[in-house]
Write a structure and sequence with these properties.
Elements: E1 20-23, H1 29-38, E2 42-46, H2 50-59, E3 64-66, H3 70-74, E4 80-83, H4 90-99, E5 103-107, H5 114-127, E6 131-134, H6 141-151, E7 158-168, H7 177-193, E8 199-205, E9 215-221, E10 227-233, E11 235-247, E12 250-255, E13 260-268, E14 275-285, H8 292-306, H9 314-325
Parallel strand pairs: 1-2, 1-4, 2-3, 4-5, 5-6, 7-10
Antiparallel strand pairs: 7-11, 8-9, 9-10, 11-12, 12-13, 13-14
Helix pairs in contact: 4-5, 5-9, 7-9
Length: about 325
Amino acid sequence: MPNSSTLAPSNSSLAPTHKVGLIGAGNWGKNLVRNFHELGVLAAIAEPSEELRGTLADQYPDVTLHDAHDPILADPEIQAVAIATPVPTHHAVAMAALEAGKDVFVEKPMTLTSAEAKALVDKAEAADRILMVGHLLLYQPAIQFIKTYLDEGRLGKIYSIHQERVKLGRARYVENVTWSLGVHDVAVLLYLIGESPRILHASGHCGLTKDVEDDVYLHMDFVSGIKAHLHNSWLWPENRRYLTIVGEKGMLVYHEMTGEVVLHRKTIDHDRLENRDEGAKTLFQSDEKTQPLRLELQHFQDCVQTRKQPISDGRNGLEVISALERIMMF
């Protein structure tokens, strides 16, 4: 079974020569604080909550704290910023950071519109700045393994891809469940297939609020003939996260919660429509110590130092937002 570390995005072995400023240290931002600090690059944090700043001051006495992000953007010693603010603010904050000459890591979803996402991509390219989107699942070693497995043609022709991400989760007032949870899955799907969907349609249900869907089924058709199906819900009794790929030579199942990739050697003969079942085999098992967020932020650090484009760069983020924006609810 392959070692997960050999499949992760490459990381620079050089000692970091840059400093990162974090904007937003709340619900998810606190995880970025911990990881950037452990990586030795965190210089400053901008967080409007006085109570939270007090907690951070106790935990990270060596990090400068601000109640707004302007001082971070004005600091010439800070080369890069990470943004974990509420989604509606992503465009304005990221644009201000790029205009200040900073490399930018912005959490998913990148923006709420493709026009905003494209503006960030155009600005980053014009300014020769790194723009990376926090599509965490792309940095799961198992996803890197699956990408290689498919690109090598080991599953043959791909017929369909099925994704499920459901749980009793944190409901939102602005973005629906697919924008909140499913953005991970759409990013993975586009990454694995390597093309944009030709047709998208979805059905959703608004139970908790009038206009925000809590449960969504998304269906996509691709020019290559692949069909993809995604179910997202934050109003569900069980926590389930699966990726199933049905191909010509078998069926691949990724159990995200265990990090296991299983090949089911099950097919149906084209001519006689006879079933073949040769059992299942575990192809890959993620190391329990593997931290995808650490791998993702190390990748950002590497890109800032080497100036290479991230796996989840701005154009990747734009593709995901464009796909989500095209969804029509019925």
